[in-house]
Design brief:
It comes from Longimycelium tulufanense. The protein is mostly beta strands and 90 residues long. It has a single domain, classed as Umud Fragment, subunit A, CATH 2.10.109.10. Helices cover 4% and strands 48% of the residues. It is built from one helix and six strands; from the N terminus they run ββββαββ. Strands 1, 2, 3, 4, 5 and 6 form a six-stranded antiparallel β-sheet that branches.
Amino acid sequence: MTPALAEGDIVLVRSRAAPRPGDVVLVCWPARPAQLSVKRAAWPEEDGWYVLGDNGLDSTDSRHLGPARVLGVARWRLWPRPGRIPGVEW
């Protein structure tokens, strides 16, 4: 899948929105607490969410780091191409 976002994109994140499979989410990792990542929510797990990168061949995600803690859901890109971020239902 082509990544929904590119480096340098500015997005609006709703911090209290409940994630759904297919949403683009801001996450942190128990294994790397200082690292924030933007990934695609796949499914909920007991310890957080299983998340995947849109570029599966070049993404560090739950396949490597386990479930992530979702901090918010990104719904809109503000820059450079304003609009709704495409979602995919898993």
